[in-house]
Design brief:
Elements (H helix, E strand, L loop, with lengths): L1 H27 L12 H5 L2 H18 L9 H11 L5 H11 L9 H15 L6 H6 L4 H17 L7 E2 H8 L11 H11 L6 E2 L1 H12 L11
Antiparallel strand pairs: 1-2
InterPro entries: CML21-like, EF-hand-dom_pair, EF_Hand_1_Ca_BS, EF_hand_dom
GO molecular function: calcium ion binding
Protein name: EF-hand domain-containing protein
């Protein structure tokens, strides 16, 4: 009985984080005009080499805070990392995001989970669109901005209805844009890519799930290629 109550409380917390992130993505459309310059999957793939380089730099950050070299970041190590990167959220929110991104339940954040966690904290810590002057004054390291801002723009490009979540019909239509016939993705590829994001098989994908999938598409090896599948 106690276990059920605890799980219910945790699930409620994660649902609240999901809803907060959804609202943040709706707000972000005003602050990330770059998503309008994307036209097709090819224009996204062209960003992969630079993003891959940035993710390697994030790996260096991860390794520098993994003091015990066990391949994971614990809460104390994460707090030091966030202080250094000048990313500020309440301790309760950070703990919630930490658990939400620990998808394998290992009670430690591995590198791919660390990328997602860091991006979510960066995004949620940014002032709302009503505080643009504050946003410009944020002293966030350029490394974080240069990696995560383009990823947010890709999500916004795919989120055609602007509701903060991706739906299958819009994603497939966007990637198979008839205005760019030479850059259309094969239908079996677009279906497979959406399924990789849609963990709950509900036809809707939030930013967290998109992030995990997108990072795997970008890869950390030059040999990794989106179209190889």
């Amino acid at each position: 009985m106690l276990c059920c109550c605890v799980n219910s409380k945790i699930n409620k917390k994660y649902a609240e984080l999901d809803a907060k992130l959804e609202r943040k993505m709706v707000e972000s459309r005003r602050n990330y005009p770059g998503h309008r310059s994307l036209k097709s999957m090819d224009s996204i793939i062209m960003k992969f080499p630079k993003l891959r380089e940035g993710l390697r730099n994030i790996r260096s950050v991860f390794e520098s805070y993994d003091k015990d070299e066990n391949g994971t970041i614990d809460m104390e190590e994460l707090k030091k990392c966030l202080e250094e990167l000048k990313l500020s959220l309440s301790e309760e929110e950070v703990k919630g995001l930490y658990g939400w991104c620990d998808v394998d339940g290992s009670k430690g954040i591995q590198f791919n989970e660390f990328i997602v966690l860091l991006c979510l904290i960066y995004l949620l810590a940014k002032p709302s669109s009503e505080s643009c002057s504050e946003s410009r004054e944020m002293d966030t390291p350029k490394l974080v901005e240069s990696i995560f801002d383009p990823i947010v723009e890709v999500f916004l490009f795919l989120d055609k209805d602007g509701k903060g979540k991706l739906n299958k019909a819009d994603v497939i239509k966007t990637l198979n844009n008839e205005d760019y016939p030479l850059e259309r993705s094969p239908s079996h590829v677009t279906n497979m890519r959406f399924e990789e994001m849609d963990w709950g098989r509900k036809g809707k994908v939030g930013f967290r799930e998109f992030l995990f999938a997108f990072i795997s598409w970008v890869g950390l090896d030059d040999a990794d290629d989106y179209m190889s599948s």
